[in-house]
Design goal:
- This protein is mostly helical.
- The chain has one domain: Winged helix-like DNA-binding domain superfamily/Winged helix DNA-binding domain (Arc Repressor Mutant, subunit A).
- The chain has four helices and three strands.
- Strand 2 and strand 3 form a beta hairpin.
- The chain starts with a helix and ends in a 10-residue tail after the last helix.
């Protein structure tokens, strides 16, 4: 497999694993309901214009999170444009975000430990004594 293809595959896998956390985290910080394009633009701003996921990948994430009760939505008609679906985080979504943040923190710490050992070329051996 070509090097760039391997990198793209890794980025795609990483994005699919973190997209819901990122979207839910952004939504929870918002004081008002947001629609898909708005969410994509806010994420792009936070990524300094280098959003690692395609905007089209956002909509399935929003639908899935709504189906799981983490978000709720309301469609608002528009006279000048197609209707927009505005999303807000539910109480269950706020609770799940707290759990996901804790999981992310422990996962990040683990990965950082593994990569630190890799960078130093050292071996990290845990005692197996009980």
């Amino acid at each position: 497999m070509e090097e760039e293809a391997i990198v793209r595959k890794f980025q795609k896998e990483l994005n699919s694993g973190t997209a819901s956390l990122v979207v839910l985290g952004l939504m929870a910080r918002s004081a008002e309901p947001l629609y898909g394009y708005q969410i994509a633009k806010l994420l792009e701003e936070l990524a300094d214009g280098r959003l690692p996921m395609k905007q089209g990948a956002l909509y399935p994430v929003l639908r899935s999170m709504e189906a799981n009760g983490l978000l709720e939505s309301e469609v608002e008609p528009s006279t000048s444009a197609p209707p927009r679906r505005y999303y807000t985080v539910t109480a269950a979504g706020h609770l799940m975000l707290e759990r996901w943040i804790a999981i992310w923190g422990s996962t990040r710490e683990f990965i950082d430990r593994v990569l630190a050992v890799t960078e130093t070329g050292g071996h990290h051996e845990e005692s197996t004594d009980v």
